[in-house]
Amino acid sequence: MSQRLAVHEPVLRRLLAGLYGEHAHFDAWLGELMASLEALHSARPAELRALDEQRAAQPDWFLSQRMLGYCAYVQNFGGDLNGVAARIPYLQEMGVSYLHLLPFLRARAGENDGGFAVSSFDDVEPALGTNADLDALTTQLRAAGISLCSDFILNHVADDHAWALAAKAGDAAARAMFLVYPDREMPDRYERTLGQVFPQVAPGNFVQVDAMGGWVWSTFYPYQWDLNYANPAVFAEMAVALLRLANRGIEVFRLDSTAFLWKREGTNSMNQPEAHQILQALRAIVDIVAPGVLLKAEAIVPTCELPAYLGSDEARECHIAYHSSLMAAGWLALSEQSTSAMREVIRNTPALPQAATWLSYVRCHDDIGWNVLRAEAAAGGHDANARLARAARFYTGAEDSYAAGASFQSSDPNAAHGSNGMAASLVGLQTARSDEEREQAMRRMLLLHGLALSFGALPVLYMGDELAMENDYSYLHRPQHAMDSRWLQRPRFDDERWQHRSEGCMYQSLQSLLAARRRHEALAANAPRTLLDDAPDGMLALARGERFLALMNFSGQPQSYALQGRWTDCLDGRILDGAATLAPYAMQWLERGAAA
Ligand code: OTU
Fold this sequence. Notes:
The protein is α/β, with parallel strands linked by helices and about 600 residues long. The chain is about 35% helix and about 20% strand. β11, α12 and β12 (about 295) form a beta-alpha-beta unit. The chain binds 3-O-alpha-D-glucopyranosyl-D-fructose. 3-O-alpha-D-glucopyranosyl-D-fructose (OTU) binds near residues 153, 197, 300 and 366.
């Protein structure tokens, strides 16, 4: 560790002095933090230290085209952690090397936002297993070549976390972990410029708590209390909590809601410079103590705000960041049968620092948030709101569409908040009445996967999409969930479909795509990407290096693209000369030359 300290400690000290240097006892606080880091490093198991060394020697290990992610809720995928372990052979069959299990730490009793209200960072949720089960799972996954990714919900804790309970009981130090205001004066001032994540189920950003004698900042549900990162104790507690989990063998941390970590009056309190300094300080800590660990930013923010989460070669931040704009743009393109906004997103996606990448995906447990696309949807003088609101309506099944989804947190047909639904339901598989309709829906699904797999990113599949699982409407019968349509896309794993997956067209086609991706180094996350602007509006043409071409038809009409020279279709081996013609919603991956 001493060598790494020499490199990263000055960076860490500078960042923390910038954030907390004005506090009385700053030096003593920093001394204690450094001592904790030392202790956590000593406690790090030998096997993980070996992994650290290996990865420090090859920091771009996660950029390979052989990396593939899979994301699931523990209870839905395996019932509990042991059940997840039993599914490792299935993950290996698909070539998965990274497993993101949605929150599995002890969650708030009662409603807890699918586990996103954490009441202990040191214990597994009893309904899902024990800490020993977690240790066993990380060991088994590591042996199978799969890195476990865990959510690290660092913006807020549950209102029954020990800190919240102590604060309610009058403990001043615990109270200082939160943002508490005696009356509405400050909340009202902040509210003037704050947005709302859950305007229907959790309006406003503050909750009145009698036991706290005032208003507590809570960006999300009222039982999720934002932490006060202006207090150095919060930073230190969270940093060591992350490292304790890392020492259990968690290799990737999904840093939830990173955009919200720092509040500033007169702004929307998102993407503030201090939020980035906090993340850079966490990165320095990881680089010192556990350099095999990756940090992944979950910041669902406009494209122009995204690159900062990956830092620069000089100021390192997260290793991975969700490209939510690309994801939303794929869905917008399908609904509009035009790639214009998606091309804007790609133009606005800069080259990244070394050993950093995007996370690409088709669906996840959250909504498709349309607001991140405002700038791209406005390009060329368009009315962004009208465009995005139309997409939101489209995915509810309106506008003559094939989709079967739901609007998120809005009943206003002219609003563009978000859309929910399983991918299969959104692409039309659920409403398809003929083989032809089913075939088209299938192509739309593979098209979106094709984009995520060929873009140059770490692609993550969402549980059930590989089996074309459809919406789960059972949430409507649960009063506590009925208002949160994100539950549409949180079904139980369908064992029936899984058993018959070899007859499943979706599963088989996706496996061929995954296999083709693994074969082509041009599809590695860090291989060069060029947007080819000579493709027709309905088509996206992406070159990867000089020898690989991905053509994707987002329209319901056939589209052609002129080719220079001879190309081979990577999926069916056909040789193309002169032009490629794509059926509605079809995709082609082409390799230059004629395969021998
Ligand atoms: C994240 O989400 C999680 O993914 C959600 O499942 C949680 O509800 C939420 O945090 C609170 O922990 O703000 O920056 O629009 O995309 O809530 C990311 C809905 C977030 C989610 C949004 C999101």
